[in-house]
Amino acid sequence: MAEKSSFLEVTYLLLWGELPTKTQLQKFENKIMNHTYIHTDLERMIKAFRYDAHPMGMLGASISALSTVHPEANPALNGEKIYKDKKFVNKQIYRILGNTPTLSAYCYRHRIGRPFNQPRNDLSYIENFLYMMDYLNDQNYKPHPTLTKVKTYFL
User: Fold this and answer.
1) Domain chopping of the chain, boundaries
2) CA dihedral for 40, 45, 49, 53, sign (positive or negative)
3) Which of 43, 94, 113, 147 could be cross-linked to 31 through a Cys-Cys bond (beta carbons 3.0 to 4.6 Å apart)?
4) CA distance 6 to 29
5) For the whole model, what pTM was predicted?
6) How far apart, in whole angstroms, are the C-alpha atoms of residue 98 and residue 86?
7) 86-111 and 22-33 are packed helices; what angle lies between their axes, rounded to 10 degrees?
8) Please, are residues 72 and 153 in contact by the beta-carbon 8 Å criterion?
9) What is the rounded CA–CA span in Å between residue 152 and residue 141?
10) Segment 78-87, tens digit of pLDDT
11) What pLDDT digit, counting tens, does each position of 87-111 carry?
């Protein structure tokens, strides 16, 4: 799978039990990439962590904090009926898949003392993640294709 499929193709397979068609994959990618930006409150929260906080601790707290900026997704506030609405559940899947690379990159950048890079949705899912992690100031920066492929295997 890792040699012939992208990270999002395998994700689709794990979620829905089959590899997506080209059209299904395009729709899936678009929905995920529409959720790459995070609320500025989450950015401020990450910046409030100590400079030497472990990135995984920051990431776990950041993912938990998503429920505070999306209260409509909290079953404690809206009841268990939200689990019966397939469209609503899928939105939460797209949201977490879109937000996680951004949150991860921000936690990493905070730990190394660099400013955050906003997502670039003109890049692929993996390229966008690598861009948010590595971009410094090269206006033409694009992650190396080999790194993009290697990162796909390990995410």
Assistant:
1) 34-154
2) negative
3) 94
4) 11
5) 0.86
6) 18
7) 60
8) no
9) 19
10) 677 777 778 8
11) 888 888 999 999 999 999 999 999 9
For helices 86-111 and 40-48, give the axis angle rounded to 10 degrees.
40
**Which amino acid, 16?**
W
Class of domain 34-154: mainly alpha
Q: How many residues does the chain have?
A: 155
Nearest by Cα to 90 from 150, 28, 143: 28
For the four alpha carbons of 48, 52, 53 and 58, in that order, the dihedral sign comes to positive
Q: Which residues of 129-143 are buried (b: 16+ CB within 10 A; e: fewer)?
A: bbbbbbbeeeeeeeb
What string of DSSP letters covers 57-81?
A: HHHHHHHHHHHHH-GGG-HHHH-GG
Contact 7, 152 (CB under 8 A): yes
